[in-house]
Amino acid sequence: MNIGIFSDVYFPQKNGVSTAVKLYKEEMEKLGHNVYLFVPKYSSNYRRNEKNVFEFPAIKFLFEKEQRIAIPISTDIFKIKDLNLDIIHSQDPFSMGLFAEFLSKVLKIKHVGTHHTMYEYYRNYLPLIIRPTLKQTQKMIKKWCLKLDKVIAPTKNIKDLLVSYGVPEEHIVVIPTGIDIKKFNKEIEWNIREEYGIDPEDKVILFVGRLGPEKNIDFLIRVFHKVNHFMPNTKFLIIGDGIERDKLEELVLDLQIQEDVIFSGGQPRERVIDAYKQSDLFVFSSYTETQGLVILESMAAGTPVVALGKMGVHDILNHENAGGVMIKELNEDDFVEAILKVLNDQELYEKLSKNAVNFIKENYSIEVSVRKIIDVYKELLAK
């Protein structure tokens, strides 16, 4: 099968969608399919060492410099027809998603889309003069979904949300984004304790993600401040970058915990996996996640999770043996209590760690997820 995947986000931009797209491509190719990516060109200095990736001219998004807005005008357009694509799979409704929609109509190719992101919560990145209302955003999402031949939702919660927007239930299929478990079995190369001078007896609490306001990292820093008061031998490692970094570093200074909070910046995926494996606990308080891929990755490494149980995260941690503790509301004391309990109760910790690994193997392997996506493709082509 010849598969075209269209996305406005891809490496070197680091986020869950980039990771998902790369995992899709790798696993589909292992199954013998030809996968072609259509993505924005990140910068003139960046050179890809990856086959079958078509890049289009792009400009930086003014209000989020890591984001690119693709301009789908390139001589590569004339090559697309020769690829004989069987299916088109877009990852968002923006410039590359619109281009995918155009090609789908012109070339009469079935079009699948994955709803990765809660766009409603990202409207604050736009100035008021051009910021859509909540209802306008929901209408835009519904309109995009209805133009697709099938919508993939990462969790049931997201499916229910799309149905509430007016997308027919039968138009949506739930397929979680999987994890490449094999990559978590490799030897550790990046020693975070050596890199940052962390003592062997110190407990490492980890966050991975973009440093944006919707991730609530300031909340996690205040939670850590309280945890650190009761357990001085704790460190908070924050991996990622974004527009909130300066503000968060100022908060750390105000709380006088700069000796115990580490900002590592963005890191390659291999290093992030090493960090998961060496950390004692992963914390997460975002309320905008369609799934929460970083939570799945932490659990795949055997590192228990304490997280806010909203949207896609709820669908994961709501399972009894998921390997984490779900906090129902954004309450500092509830987070602190859960963190201290997990770190101080060795029997509980080992149980959560073991459950986490087993839960991912049984429910969230990339092999299972991609096979389900391929089944969706085949079903559409059969029609």
Write out key terms for the chains shown.
15 strands; six-stranded parallel beta sheet; single chain; seven-stranded parallel beta sheet; 19% strand; 383 residues; Rossmann fold; alpha/beta
Distance N terminus to C terminus?
A: 16 Å
Q: So, CATH architecture of the largest domain?
A: 3-Layer(aba) Sandwich
- Give the CA-based shape: globular
Uncertain residue ranges: none
Report helical residue fraction: 40-55%
Rg over CA atoms: 21 Å
Kindly state the number of beta strands. Answer: 15
Largest sheet: 7 strands, parallel
Strand order of the largest sheet: 3-2-1-6-7-8-9
Question: CATH H level of the largest domain: which superfamily?
Answer: Glycogen Phosphorylase B
Q: How many domains would you count in the coordinates?
A: 2
CATH domain fold name of the largest domain: Rossmann fold
Q: H/E order of the elements?
A: EHEEEEHEHEHEHEHEHEHEHEHEHEHHH
CATH class of the largest domain: Alpha Beta
Percentage of residues in DSSP E strands: 15-25%
- Quote the average pLDDT: 94
Query: Which structural class should the secondary elements be placed in?
Result: alpha/beta
Task: Give the count of helical stretches.
Answer: 14
